[in-house]
Here is the input.
Amino acid sequence: MGLTTRSMAEVYAARFQRGMAARWRELGELAIQAVLFFAAMVSVFTTMGIVAVLAVEAIPFFQRVSLIEFLTDPQWTPLFAQKHFGIMPLVVGTFLTSAVALALAMPVGLLSAVYLSEYAPSRVRAILKPALEVLAGIPTVVYGYFALLFVTPLLKRIIPGLETFNALSAGLTMGVMIIPLISSLSEDALYAVPTSLREAAYALGATRLEVAVRVVIPAALSGIVASFILAASRAIGETMIVAIAAGQRPILTLDPRRAIETMTAYIVQVSLGDVPHGTLEFRTIFAVGLVLFLLTLALNLLAIRIIERYREVYR
Amino acid sequence: MEGKTGMEEIVLEAQDLTVYYDGRPAIEGIHLKIPRCRITAIIGPSGCGKSTLLRCFNRMNDLIPSARVVGRVLFEGIDLYGPDVDVVEVRRRIGMVFQKPNPFPKSIYENVAFGPRIQGIRDRRRLDEIVERCLQAAALWDEVKDKLHQNALTLSGGQQQRLCIARALATEPEVLLMDEPASALDPIATMKIEDLMRELARRYTIVIVTHNMQQAARVSDYTAFMLAGEDRVGRLIEFGPTQQIFTRPRDRRTEDYITGRFG
Amino acid sequence: MERRRRREIVGRVFEWIALGATLFGLVVLALLLFDVARRGLGVLSWSFLTRYPSRFPEQAGIRSALLGTLWVMGLTALFAVPLGVAAAIYLEEYAPRNRLTRLIELNINNLAGVPSIIYGLLGLELFVRSLRLERSILAGALTLSLLILPILITASREALRAVPMSLREAAFALGATRWQVIRHQVLPVAFPGILTGMILALSRAIGESAPLITIGALTFIAFDPRGPLDPFTVLPIQIFNWVSRPQAGFHTRAAGAILVLLTVLLSMNSLAIYLRNRLQRRYRW
Here is the structure.
């Protein structure tokens, strides 16, 4: 009896012990996991690659051009005989088109978010929401065409002194493009506000508008702000619209009727030209790219932070 | 706290078993002996850690990253949490049926054949044979033999659950763990599952978690009663032959629960 | 009473303004489509699709741009889809909750917001220069792959997350290894969702021009690309080129090319919506 139980136990022990087959199988599993992990790490490598590329080309640039000159010189003329390397005109140009875009997209986007979340019957919402998403799916080069060949001629009839290439048309068109970004992210934030909060306000006799403006929007404010920040990041980085419709003239102005040049449009301009690689002139696009990357990085991280925080609150 | 199992042969045994989730104990100090070819029911109010205990027996708790198991679970005298144990083999030998029927969204045939297939059985005739045998054993064959290649999700809830039992049988386990297998089913389907369990108990050892005391009384040979204390840590209160637990419980708390005076 | 009426009117007016704001974007969209159609419908013809670009607007076609777009998209899908799905599987099914995982996730979130032209600068230095791929289709496809990777990963993760946990448990309980669970049970169920995400990601790539301009995609190509190492142009760049010309004749060509591009995009999006609906109908637990 004792002997049989022990030999039974040994048989079972042998069965559960990891044999050669199990070891090979585990090795295979580990190999698969390693491959998948590597795929996930590609995103980290991409970021590292971006930083490395920008640094490698921008450092020699800054050895020739001082940071002070880069940041304070009011002229940007690296492609001319009389060279100036002040990024200010490009930054101001970028700021100008982005400001126009945001001035349009923030109120319109937020209002449509409020409408979709607080007013629209579910059937209307089911139609309008995907229809708005279509706007975000149109290629930017198409918006560029629209800005230059439709918006500008239209605005020229109303606004005297509007140049053929101008910050206003490009900015407004860009604003239309980023409306869906703001409205869908803001709507998520509005939607996350608990119904109990709305009911409490209704119970106190508030109208729908008062509930929306005094209760829901303040409660969703961080999400709305995050959507604005992401929209700003998107506007700063947008390329084709401004390259087509805003011009290639890096002048320091805040007049949206005039032709300007953004950071992105400058990179396109140099890429299309025949400036030889490795020269100081060519390296300017990496210095500009670095500024662009750092600006958008800061905005993205800020928005991600805010979104993560408000998701925690309502979870 | 070890109950009387008399002369029964013990298949599974928990020794001083404690499970932590995120460092906090969920069940603590469990000693339990599961006899061969019997149905053992684990009962207790919700949140007492019945399912947690059940999931220790086939190491399903390994899938929860925050879970840590301390103590021993002996299967035929082998510690399942020992250093060189093959988890995959453990789960094949100790099958599991879940609370909600969860057939794969594939054909009835493919559901049953999945276990043998991943063990490397490719021979079509052998698979056919296994599928038929397991569906027979799960008392489902007559209802599905003409539509083996139909999607399993087209079956009724009770049929789906019996399919899940057939699927579990296909890896030739010795023990079947059942986590409230009838809680999502109507009374008639429940009855069929209970009849099936009695039938299966001739060949298999069954451990069933249930919150339904009548069910435990109807189908099980042995009953373990678990309860979470004020500290919300589940402990085994009493274990013994089902008849004794339900007629002459020794612990006051068991009696309160059985008679419905609890909570 | 007077006060209450005023509140009511203000509320009504606000509702109309909010509705107007919602419709504003759609009105602009309609105007855009109308303008493109008005200008571009006339140039659409078989010869427009099959001719190379030309100095003379009336002879210019989009043959090389269309072929370039097909080549670049094919290779982009080839590189990005396996990589994106693999990364999503790792993050959903394997990744422990630790700092490295958080870092990867933060990276993906941030990369989704990096301007596309920055990817162009990366592609220029990494693929065109360091790997010596020159201004080739391959370099363009690799650049766009990195660009759409965050979109693909996010969409694939959502598809994987939608697969019920009970399905994984059932397979694990039968003694399947983690990879067997994923390969045989999780992926087949998540597949339509992943496919939808893939199409949407590619429809983003197909409209991109800035990064390709940066890596040096040409604007004038009068031959068919024969292999992945050939120089190329794509539809958006052809459009950009024509819009930037002063002659009105090229502007109508641009509008025609936009119509072609939007048609391709529309069919891709319809396919994605169709697949999504099919998915919802098929699996219900």
The two ends of chain C are 54 Å apart (CA to CA). The mean pLDDT of chain C is 92. The longest helix of chain C spans residues 2-40.
